[in-house]
Amino acid sequence: MQEQVRAVARTGLVAIVGRPNVGKSTLLNALVGERVSITSRKPQTTRERVLGVLTRGTRPATTQFIFVDTPGLQRGGRSLLAQRMNRSARAALAEVDVVVFVIDAHGWRSGDEAVLELLPSDRPNIVLALNKTDTLSHYEDILPVLQDSAGRYPFAALVPVSAERKRQLDELLAEIEKLLPEGEPLFDGEQYTDRNLRFLAAELLREKAFRLLGDELPYGIAVTIERWSETDSQLEIVAGLLVERESHKPIVIGAQGAKLREIGRLARADIEALVGKPVRLETWVRVRRGWTDDARALKSLGYD
Ligand code: GDP
After folding, report:
1. How many domains would you assign to the chain?
2. Domain limits for position 120
3. Whole-number Å distance between alpha carbons of 130 and 209
């Protein structure tokens, strides 16, 4: 019987909200594993940005948690008071299926109350996560906080967690899952984490270099990502094109840098399409002898 009840797919949008520093990003990372950057190859289902996707279970009982950014609530917060009347934050929250409201397990602060005021009243889809339970001297200290919380809002569930120690996260997910609507997964396994995005970016660069240089480089070329710095609006990458010999450098660079510029231009376009935001790509040609044998180099290339 129970099996039958579970044999249904659920999919929905989840927003993690809370005042700054309560551990929202830590929690998101703990839930989706490595930070999932962007899934821009997929059509965006909402105007919110997808921060990460977690798919659990096996078909047909797959559950897909799509964590989205809710502008005005998720980040910043310094201007939270100013945003109390922020309609777009409210509208964004009204669009998600589940809201995970994070507070510190030590208790409510005025910043938490400000966030609570932004939440739609009397919605049955808000789960309170009381985070950082690992910092409580006695676990029972949470009992009065639970009681206090229950009196403040009809939360669907109250779940003490430790995002950092990854404690009680299954319980949290189970509570979220109960609130997700039935539906087939929207994202099918093609999720890019920071790590494999880097790898893909390096691959794209290597592929362009290979295409433009062809047989000119007898020992081939490797690419290493030296810097990867991402903001909401752009991605900055510093990449090294590794050649075996000093004499190979001018081949890659080309007359007045034309070859290297063209490699960079083509790779940048593809990486932009991959990440869905403007990319600043800086490329340097470096001589690294024997990079093929160099374990560290391989590791930085993502081959570990
Ligand atoms: P955000 O501003 O809400 O996204 O908060 P962050 O995720 O950046 O976390 C703020 C600080 O709290 C960081 O120093 C985290 O390492 C820390 N933190 C987050 N979760 C936990 C937890 O469960 N236990 C402890 N001890 N620290 C945590």
Report:
1. 2
2. 10-179
3. 50
Q: With cut-offs at 50, 70 and 90, classify the pLDDT of residue 195.
A: low
Whether 118 and 261 share a structural domain: no
CATH number of 44's domain: 3.40.50.300
Mean pLDDT of the chain: 79
Q: Which ligand 1 atom sits closest to the C-alpha of 165?
A: 23
Q: How far is the C-alpha of 168 from the C-alpha of 166, rounded, in Å? A: 7
Round to whole Å and give the CA distance between 174 and 254: 57
Contact 47, 220 (CB under 8 A): no
Is 204 in the same domain as 149?
Answer: no
Query: Considering 123, 152, 179, which residue would you say is the last residue of a domain?
Result: 179
The rounded Å distance from CA 71 to ligand 1 centre is 20
In this structure, the answer to whether residues 136 and 89 fall within a common structural domain is yes
- CB neighbour class for 266 (10 Å; exposed up to 12, middle 13-18, buried from 19): middle
Name the CA dihedral angle for 72, 76, 79, 84, rounded to a multiple of 10 degrees: 30
Measure the CA angle with vertex 15, ends 12 and 19; round to 5°: 170
- Tokens at 65, concatenated: 């948690």
Tell which atom from ligand 1 comes closest to the C-alpha of 102.
Answer: 3
> Same domain for 129 and 241?
no
Which amino acid appears at position 23 of this protein? Answer: G
User: Which residue's structure tokens are 């109250």?
Assistant: 158
Element (H, E) at 201: helix 194-213
Is residue 231 domain-resident? yes
Residue 52 in domain = yes
Which two structure tokens, joined as six digits, stand for 215?
A: 């047989």
For the ranges 13-27, 56-70, 87-101, 190-204, which has the lowest average pLDDT?
190-204
Q: Whose CA is nearest to atom 20 of ligand 1?
A: 23
